[in-house]
Design brief:
With about 170 residues, the chain is mainly beta. It contains two helices and 17 strands. A hairpin with a 6-residue loop joins strand 7 and strand 8.
């Protein structure tokens, strides 16, 4: 600990806050701008301050020193992203995603009972107090909207809706 980063200007912070998704692992990262600093939140954990090594390279204080986040400019036709580099293993790429803020009518599209043949279990998706919930048995878990048709569930589980040709939700 005790590590300090380089100071960031407002221009350095601009455009970095948002939601990022790793298509291979399904993991989500949220970058938050608060108090003139950037913060990283993963799987509903409390945000951790990002320490700037440069205007585009960052690390988290209690992560191993070899773990770094680099903001990557958008390639032609692509969204900007984050490259997570770790000492052991290839870099992980996270694409910037447009946050999904569904209306009540949009939330209602996801409600229903969904059956998993592999697990032989039914899941109930309902709207409770204006929020989408996911239940197996009687305990409902809140689902946090992530990006279009995707919600973050318990312990960072990502649920992505499947739609039929008419656009109706048929599964997750």
């Amino acid at each position: 600990k005790g590590m300090t980063g380089v100071p960031l200007t407002e221009a350095d912070r601009k455009g970095k806050a948002g939601l990022y998704h790793n298509a291979l692992s399904g993991d989500l990262m949220r970058i938050i701008e608060r108090d003139g600093k950037l913060w990283l939140s993963t799987s509903g954990e409390p945000p951790e301050e990002l320490l700037a090594l440069s205007p585009t390279r960052f690390r988290v204080a209690d992560w191993p020193p070899s773990s770094e986040l680099s903001f990557e400019p958008a390639a032609a036709g692509a969204r900007p992203g984050i490259r997570l580099s770790r000492e052991n293993g290839p870099p992980e790429l996270y694409a910037s995603m447009e946050a999904f803020e569904p209306t009540a009518a949009q939330l209602a599209e996801f409600t229903g009972t969904y059956y998993s043949k592999e697990l032989d279990v039914s899941y109930q998706v309902a709207v409770r107090d204006g929020k989408l919930t996911f239940a197996v048995g009687t305990k409902p878990y809140p689902l946090v909207p992530a990006y279009r048709d995707a919600f973050e569930g318990p312990e960072g589980t990502l649920l992505e809706a499947v739609r039929d040709a008419q656009g109706h939700v048929t599964g997750f």
